[in-house]
Specification:
CATH superfamily: Copper homeostasis (CutC) domain
Strand order of the largest sheet: 1-2-3-4-5-6-7-8
CATH architecture: Alpha-Beta Barrel
Helix content: 25-40%
Number of helices: 8
Radius of gyration: 18 Å
Number of strands: 10
CATH topology: TIM Barrel
Shape: globular
Strand content: 15-25%
């Protein structure tokens, strides 16, 4: 196999489409517009029922940062226990201090709740003040994988840092690249970073006409998004990316 392709999925339908397109693994979340939150128990159950792909479950109780209250953190621990019971193949999480550094104590506590399953430190890493110190801490905790864009919005722009992180890791942790990965730059991202895993959403917009009778109504806090637009993984995009990734 060439480069492993992981697709970020916000629904069971996304998971089905990702597998149809030939993805190798999925990350399952809710609320992708908020950066991804913990999916519901029913979503985990149905995702596992509809796919044979490894399903990595996001453990994130809210948007707006990664420094959590005691109640929020206890919820994360409980969510991990429930997800493990429902068949999760691994977990995606990250906890920071108020200063933006890796919260080693709490991240280790979550790692201890993983039931020996793979664990991924997500892009909370990309706001840490010292990426090399953060990498060392994450490796010391025993995380399986790190997801990063190289501390910039688009991973291609962060390629130099990503390559340095991979070199520093010495194979002690998998480094997966996500952030701005597209069909047009997959090969360049892989070549410039040296990564062997990529993470992306591969979504396209579908139209749900059920709101057309009264288009003045909005159901979210933001009025910028059209209510009829539904983001769904496009299996044809996934297939194209998998094809390119298999050749680099």
């Amino acid at each position: 196999m060439g480069v492993l392709v992981e697709i970020c999925c916000g629904s069971v339908e996304d998971v089905i489409q990702a597998e149809k397109g030939g993805a190798h693994r999925v990350e399952l979340c809710s609320a992708l517009a908020l950066g991804g939150l913990t999916p519901s128990a029913a979503t985990i159950i149905e995702a596992k029922r509809h796919t044979k792909l490894p399903v990595m479950v996001m453990i994130r109780p809210r948007s707006g940062g990664f420094c959590y209250s005691e109640v929020e953190f206890s919820t994360m621990e409980r969510e991990m226990e429930i997800a493990a019971e429902l068949g999760a193949d691994g977990f995606v999480f990250g906890v920071l201090t108020p200063e933006g550094q890796v919260d080693v104590r709490r991240t280790k506590r979550l790692a201890d709740h993983s039931h020996g399953l793979p664990i991924v430190f997500h892009r909370a890493f990309d706001v840490t003040p010292d990426p090399f110190e953060a990498l060392d801490q994450i490796m010391e905790i025993g995380m399986t994988r790190l997801l990063t864009s190289g501390q910039v919005p688009k991973s291609l722009e962060g390629a130099s840092l990503i390559r340095s992180l991979i070199q520093r890791s010495g194979g002690r942790i998998e480094v997966m690249v996500g952030g701005g990965v597209r069909i047009g730059n997959v090969a360049e991202v892989v070549q410039q970073t040296g990564c062997r895993q990529i993470h992306l959403s591969a979504h396209s917009q579908h139209i749900d006409t059920s709101t057309y009778a009264n288009r003045a109504i909005s159901f979210g806090a933001s009025h910028s998004a059209l209510e009829e637009h539904v983001s769904v993984v496009d299996y044809s995009v996934v297939a194209a990316i998998v094809q390119v990734a298999g050749q680099v």
